Recover the amino acids of this structure.
């Protein structure tokens, strides 16, 4: 999906057979420790250029807010997560590169057929998709009926591929970032 979108969100990944059966490995990424695309700040003190996600308390009862940067890279990752139905986008699953690029890694809790979106990237909820974002979603939907769909069918169940197509169709019919829905928690735990 990352390759199909052309957004380079997921680090280069290889699948293969290892000593314990099938698996995958990803190209290691050296993160910039000075950058935190998701952060905790004192409650209500949202920095300029950041989005508020939620409020909470630290173990010592200090009020804090979870925030994330308002960057094109993170916005694309948030849309990728909507399409992939990512159920585990934690702050620590966003790798900040020195050049500003953001990679997304996780444990593969994606592509479920039922809605399971859990993320710390809720800052764009209700925001309209740009024309370029709509074109990217439409491109994925079209590609699902061609080679891309066949390739995904080797990795996902037929129902999971159909669910991805449906998520594309829903986004194209109402081109806005969705908000939390259903009975599942809206954010993964722990948040980082």
């Amino acid at each position: 999906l990352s390759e199909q979108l052309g957004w380079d969100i997921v680090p280069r990944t290889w699948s293969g057979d290892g000593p314990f059966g099938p698996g995958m490995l990803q190209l290691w990424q050296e993160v910039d420790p000075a950058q935190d695309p998701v952060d905790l700040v004192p409650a209500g003190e949202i920095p300029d250029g950041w989005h508020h996600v939620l409020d909470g308390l630290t173990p010592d009862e200090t009020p804090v807010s979870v925030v994330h940067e308002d960057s094109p890279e993170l916005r694309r990752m948030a849309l990728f997560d909507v399409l992939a139905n990512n159920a585990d986008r934690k702050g620590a699953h966003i790798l900040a590169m020195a050049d500003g690029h953001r990679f997304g890694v996780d444990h593969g809790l994606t592509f479920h057929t039922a809605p399971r979106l859990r993320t710390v990237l809720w800052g764009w909820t209700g925001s309209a998709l740009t024309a370029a974002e709509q074109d990217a979603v439409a491109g994925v939907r079209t590609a699902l009926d061609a080679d891309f769909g066949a390739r995904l069918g080797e990795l996902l169940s037929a129902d999971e591929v159909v669910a991805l197509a449906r998520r594309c169709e829903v986004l194209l019919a109402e081109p806005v970032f969705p908000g939390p829905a259903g009975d599942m928690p809206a954010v993964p735990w722990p948040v980082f």
